[in-house]
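Throughout this chapter, every protein is written as a compact record of paired, labelled lines. The reader may check this reading against the record printed directly beneath this paragraph:
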Amino acid sequence: MLLREPTVRNLTVHYDLRFLGETEQDEPLFLRAGGSSYPLVRHSIHSLSESGFLSEPDDRHPTHYCVSVPHDSSKVQLIRVYGAPDHQAIPTLKAAAISTSTSGKVFSSADTAKSILFLNPSITVLTPDHSDTVLNHMDDSDELRQMVYMLEQLKDGWNTPTIIKDESGQPVLDKAGKPFYTYELHPYLLNLTAGAAAGIKSKIYSDATLRGVRWNVQPGISHIKADQENPAVKAVNQGGYHYNLKDGGPQYGVSVAVEKLTDSFELDLKVTNSFIRHMSVYATFYKGDGVTPIEMNSDALLALLRGENLLEVKEWMEAFGEAEQLLLGTKSLKFIGNVSSEGTFLGIPVTEASSLFSFQLPAADPIGKLRLSIGSLGNGNSHSDADPSAAWIGIGATSLMELVIPTVSLIMTVGTESSKMFDTLFKKVKFIAPTVYSIYTIVKDIIDDSSNTGNDVKNMIASLADRIVTTLLTGSEFAAELAAILSAEEVEEAIPVVGWGLKALALEGTVAQLAQTVGEVIASPRVVDFELTVTMDASISLIAAADDGQQPEFAATAAYYIVTAQYSDNTTRTYRGEILDPKEASLSFELKDVPVGGKVIFLAAVYSKEGWLVGGGKSEQLDNLLTPGKEQLIATVNVKQMLYPLNEQTTYQHSQLLVQQDCQYTWQHTAEAPSETAENLGTGGSGHVLESLAGLTLNSNMGLLGYAWQASGMNIPPIDGDNGDNLQLFAFKNIAYGPNPNAGVMNTPKGYNKAPLLAYPQLGAESGAAEYFYLDPTGDSTNGYHLRRIKPINDPSVPQNSPDREFDLSSGESWGRFNLLPASMAYHSNGYVVAVNPAYPVMQILRIPSSSQPDDQAPWAMITLGPGTREGLLQQPELVAIAPNQTVYVLEKGNRRIQAFSRGGHPVAAFTDPAHPYWINLVNHDTAQDVNYLAMSVEIQGHIYVLSQYGNGYDADQYYLDIYTPAGSHLVTQRGLVAASMAVDLWRNLYTLNFQQITSPTGSTEPSVSEWTPSTPRKDGIQ
């Protein structure tokens, strides 16, 4: 960090302190670096040129400089410039900068701004080359310029020396009897760090050179290919029990894999963590019923542990002493070890912490389930019944390792050669355990506070920062022990500025900031649960349906089948099998070692060798349970022949239109599609005017279409008023897409001022199940936008004026809530709703609880991902759709792509292009016009349908339907398919929400709906 590197050993550092304002000529200034102080000298051009470091005048010349400062280019450090003491006898802090190996540097106020940002624990790196990369990403940003401007305006007031006081208001004194102090950043300056950090992180978290240094990616798993699954878990010989993981993840940066399970019930589980945090791992064993937890004392637990886990847990028990009962679990929840992030610690290579957990399963009564609860700093839990005590050691270890140590390392000049030191630190239980206990005692109340359990964790982390600084770091025993480990003299020197990074991180904990930045640790759940459960085999038979009284057989061109097993609380399985003789009336296969529990639907699709869909069917929804006396789940799927291929020549043809006739809905068969476009939408006023269209969804199991729109003349009151005759309100409704659309009709009795959204599963339970939801748009970001239940019907015997045909819009009971108003959302069969909004580069993931909750107690959606261009990050996510195999697809307008994810927010390598297997690039039909992506849907094989509108949408030629193959290549474009939204059913029938205005049987204004079918081949297979 030099103006020019001299030839002598002692290097000279120059500082530009122009922003300090009217500094007196004789005011003493000194530089603090590496534990030593050096006087700063006011320079002149003459004095610098004599020293040989400035050959000619420069308008960026420094105001001060100092000489003979030892500098190790292998280390990154925070250097500070101090002035005279203030009235409290505290040295005034004039400037700061991050010193790296880069030479030719004149420091300015921008470097002070950068140093404040660099101390944010989610930005810091400790290696010189990588730190320069991070600092360079801060250049040329509006956010940094705002901070520089604020520094220059505040002058010496950019920070305030503040004495640390205890709870009684008395100064906390060091070993010399002097008060500890901090430099509190001015609130205006501190607040600017939030936006600046978001912009910087969007760059550094997309920088490929910082992979494994500042960020990692764990590829997600959306489904398991059962025919290719590694059979790591086999039958064991005690009672015929089998075990397997319900869902090994990754979820929120952590995954679990079964490494070994022997016939004697010795189990090895590998836990992998890709976020920069430390996590504590706890285990709960359940009896054979899978419900009753097994209680055990410490001796019983130690008898089960093996290898390093046994030694580690013993160390923690000894280090905690009497505190063991508080932090090492309960009667049934037992601490079994820790895991840290892999590979590097903020750029410094470290050996992977022990992440293999070895133990003997209780054998006296074979267990029905093993739950691993893995915890750390975060906001809420992945499951509503997760035990928060599993997070305490992870919270304490993360607070120490990832929040405190980086700043201390920068102050104390801990370099890259210190990897062995960090390895030692991570495993030094006798130091970490008492520190974790100290953190537990000083922050337990703020983390247990119910007001800190939502997504907005700013106050929690800010309080955590204050208490760590004022209570933990000022403790003489802690400081002495940490100094010995770091081979440093005065760890207390870091205390005045540690709070900068922690307070900046706290600002990222606001909902608004989580919506704009890469949250990672603070956006993750405090506890993530994984379950190893008893498994069973499932036998599935595909039965060919008879066609027109003929002999039952599969299509003559049938070559292979894919069966998708959609589980309600388990990872989806897919199985592919060959069809050797299509004239066979049935085929059977087995899924091995599928975890027991929840419900399952089997979805079968039959394909020709060209990949054409030539048959399909689905089973009833079944209880995924062991039946007394049987060791297999038996399921059958009736398969009907189909002739809907997709290739480059495929076009969709209009088939039928929803119309109102004689006060009833009916399907009018017509090849002529409605001609109305966006130009036909009204702009308000009285009468009957269709204003806007808000989306369409479908459910194949009940044969329902749901859609929302805005209009005047709705003949319904607003939900927040009494008279809505001429108001422009949003409403939604259901119809059946079978022969009788009236069988599924449901209407809204009141209208909304914002668009409600619908989330229906592609497949779902029968009427009355809780898988059908609508988003209540009357909420706000503070109290949440609530997900409310729909009880759909599809029954022609129910009268059209029956109260059962009205959606229940009452509030008070919620199935979850979102901080950010979703613009698109989709239902995941594992019991999640995933939502996006193009205004926020994040994905919201809401796990549906087992029952509804009062509005003020409903669980919050997790806010994941963040802005960027690499896999796992987003820009302007406009649409979300979920495939039958449960892959989550997000269409990003900003990155012009469709990216694949698991329901845990991890990118999935779903596509075949080795250059970018996690996404496919969207075709662009007109670079001169803005594009509006209207809808995205996925059919049974995985073809992705995208409906887009270019320009104002007034001309039919501005509408495009694009179809992408499951592998990710663009298959076909159909121009002129005019619609405001669309959805594809499992068998490739296309339904559209039209700009055409119709009148309902009750006289309300609403849009029409159409069905489109793909072109079919001749019987010889040629189109």
